[in-house]
Inverse folding.
């Protein structure tokens, strides 16, 4: 069953995040993608993830389609104005990419091209409206399109550190859903209880929620995120569990697998993010029983 | 200076219509020089608003004041005894002034009566043109005193483009081609060889691209 059908039939979906290379050597990307065939419902390709210049998501998505995988590509406004965004979205459709995730971009100051100019012509709600307009056959200048693109379009929820931030973010998500988002991808989950409570706030939108399973790769990463991302809810117990494990890497995989398995009972899908450890995606899926 | 143009009357009216008592605040700096938000313009706007609301059968209480500088907290403090008698504040300063007032008098709604437009210079009586975009890394020293960022429609750092014709820009025959001006000026200075030096990709971090900017002068900051 296609990703679109599964989403509308309230069936559980699994997305694997795969980054494009910084360069043109696609061998690793293709090898890792082939190992996922039949095991995931789609591959999610971020665009310039973490503000790092790399092969575009459009290119990566087209490559994944060539490999026979359903593909979700990130769309954001930092690097492209409405002309470039619309052109790439039309191209994505023609290249067989049927799913878009409108996401926030990392500030340019945090990336690897810090001196680059920022575009930010449209924000996330603006992009969602633009995609809806294209799907209805009209571009943002009001001109008619020849042939209508069709997409399932999602939006991303930002991490929240406290109740006030959650209230603001729920407000934002309301705007995004009203602007055309058909599903919500939530931030990495490390505390299932807190996440369960947070989910209550999203019920009003009545759209599928896809949780992010984030692979912590080591103690340092877990510690860093626990300090610098207050909303991450990474507990000392989690950090201790990795530190005390005889095989820390295997433990990290197990923890991601456990999170995915538990989240299957709570939401309509998971997106598994490994930040460079895409070769371990099959192990996480196996660990989760997916 | 910072230039501005007055907002359409309908927009200003829509902002203040729900209120009965308005404090209309002008600024004696840039907006006064470009004749949009100084003492005279404050008086004209106050009259226009009063006439409009009188026609609607409503008496609008409008207090007028023009501060020396609306972007300076010291001068904005002068409003402290006036805000109590107002339901809302209407500012005729640039966005910097509006925000200074909004930051100081948080309990009052503040509306801009002008659209802040650009940093520019006066060409002749009643005509101002954009001259600077505040990129934070001035190149005027190598471009003959003409800014390619503010004055070239494409912000080209190595121009001109193919759209330059008879010294004019392809987007509007009334706009000078900045790179023609740069060439003419460098030639007049005997520095035309400079045009062959390719400028590297600009570092935009010093501009707005690096996020909101702030200057802290340790020798002056209290």
């Amino acid at each position: 069953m296609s990703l679109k059908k599964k989403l509308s039939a309230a069936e559980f979906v699994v997305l694997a995040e795969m980054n494009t290379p910084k360069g043109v050597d696609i061998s690793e990307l293709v090898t890792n993608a082939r190992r996922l065939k039949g095991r995931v419902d789609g591959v999610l390709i971020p665009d310039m993830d973490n503000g790092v210049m790399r092969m575009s998501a459009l290119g990566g998505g087209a490559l994944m389609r060539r490999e026979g995988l359903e593909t979700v590509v990130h769309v954001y406004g930092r690097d492209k104005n409405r002309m470039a965004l619309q052109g790439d979205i039309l191209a994505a459709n023609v290249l067989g990419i049927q799913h878009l995730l409108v996401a926030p971009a990392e500030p340019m100051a945090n990336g690897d091209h810090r001196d680059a100019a920022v575009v930010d012509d449209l924000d996330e709600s603006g992009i969602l409206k633009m995609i809806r307009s294209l799907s209805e056959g009209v571009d943002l200048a009001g001109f008619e399109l020849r042939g209508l693109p069709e997409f399932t379009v999602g939006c991303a929820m930002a991490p929240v550190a406290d109740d006030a931030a959650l209230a603001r973010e729920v407000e934002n998500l309301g705007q995004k859903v009203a602007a055309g988002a058909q599903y919500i991808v939530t931030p990495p989950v490390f505390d299932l209880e807190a996440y369960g409570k947070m989910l209550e706030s999203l019920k009003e939108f009545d759209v599928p929620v896809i949780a992010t399973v984030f692979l912590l790769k080591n103690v340092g990463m877990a510690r860093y995120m626990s300090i610098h991302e207050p909303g991450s809810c990474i507990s000392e117990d989690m950090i201790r569990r990795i530190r005390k494990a005889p095989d820390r890497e295997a433990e990290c995989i197990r923890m991601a697998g456990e999170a995915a398995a538990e989240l299957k009972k709570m939401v309509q899908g998971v997106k598994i993010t490994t930040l460079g450890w895409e070769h371990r995606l099959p192990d996480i899926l196996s660990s989760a029983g997916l | 200076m910072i230039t501005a143009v007055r907002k359409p009357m309908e927009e200003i009216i829509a902002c203040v219509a729900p209120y009965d008592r308005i404090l209309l605040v002008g600024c004696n700096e840039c907006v006064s020089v470009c004749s949009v938000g100084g003492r005279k313009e404050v008086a004209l706007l106050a009259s226009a608003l009063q006439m409009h609301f009188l026609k609607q059968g409503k008496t609008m209480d409008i207090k007028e004041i023009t501060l020396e500088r609306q972007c300076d907290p010291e001068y904005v403090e002068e409003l402290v005894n006036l805000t109590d008698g107002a339901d809302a504040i209407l500012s005729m300063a640039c966005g910097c002034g509006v925000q200074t007032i909004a930051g100081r008098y948080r309990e009052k709604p503040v509306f801009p009566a002008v659209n802040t437009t650009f940093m520019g210079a006066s060409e002749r009586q009643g005509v101002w043109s954009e001259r600077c975009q505040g990129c934070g890394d001035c190149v005027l020293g190598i471009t003959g005193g003409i800014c390619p960022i503010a004055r070239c429609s494409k912000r080209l750092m190595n121009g001109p483009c193919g759209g330059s014709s008879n010294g004019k820009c392809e987007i509007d025959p009334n706009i000078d081609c900045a790179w023609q001006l740069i060439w003419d000026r460098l030639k007049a200075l005997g520095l035309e060889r400079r045009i062959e030096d390719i400028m590297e990709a600009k570092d935009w971090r010093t501009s707005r691209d690096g996020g909101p900017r702030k200057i802290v002068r340790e020798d002056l900051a209290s």
About this structure: The longest strand of chain A covers residues 183-188. The interface with chain B takes residues 107-109, 114-118 of chain A (CB under 8 Å). Residues 163-178 of chain A form the longest helix (16 residues).
